[in-house]
Amino acid sequence: MRVDYAEDADLEVERLADGWLAVAREWLSDAVSADIPEPNALVLATVDAAGHPASRTVLCKGLDSDGVVFYTNYGSDKALHLKHTPYASVTFPWIGIARQLTIRGAAEKVSEETTAEYFASRPRGSQLGAWASQQSRPVGARADLEQALEDVTKRFDGQDVPVPPNWGGFLVRPDTVEFWQGRTSRLHNRIRFTVATSTVERLQP
Question: What is the pLDDT at residue 1?
Fold first, then answer.
């Protein structure tokens, strides 16, 4: 099940002389142009209170010089992990163009104002779903979830849906940003940017 990666232009160390964000946004744009499914999907890795790692896919809803933003129920497993150990690793797995972007750093909640602005932009169904689901908690049957959605739909009928009281965003502030390109003979192209020192290093694959 080996793949012989197509060779696009190598990312060079010099491209990161002015920082990581411009190249990260360019790669995201390339993923969109290549019709990669869910190009803003990222794998979020956290550590629970016992020191055990956990990973799952979430959607990036912000990418700027401060870092990466995603949203969740603050009672979810991921949020509880970040409360105990506020540090995360996120990877954009753009497999279709043989690229990955990995950002590692401290995680913090975004402001209530930022959450409210984003929540207002969501489709109404997604807003209602955030109220219906107690994320990561056990549920007896699928029908129970559907009933919960029906209940909140009736509750907010004819009204704007407010932000749930235990729902919001996290910002992962980058310590390091690593760019990866697949190459033949597994001699992959890896470049790491360290934010605190603006250090750019080429890494062996």
Answer: 65
Show the low-confidence residues of the chain (pLDDT under 50).
none
Whether 155 is catalytic = no
Alpha-carbon span 165 to 32, nearest angstrom: 33
Q: Which of 186, 190, 192, 202 is catalytic?
A: 186
Enumerate domains of the chain plus CATH numbers.
13-122+165-203 (2.30.110.10)
Q: Which helix (H) or strand (E) holds 176?
A: strand 167-181
Count of alpha carbons within 13 Å of 84, Cβ hemisphere only? 14
What does the DSSP 8-state code read for residue 197?
T
Residues 6+ positions from 193 with CB-CB distance below 8 Å = 16, 19, 20, 176, 177, 178, 179, 199, 200
Could you tell me which of 68, 101, 92 has the C-alpha nearest to residue 179? Answer: 101
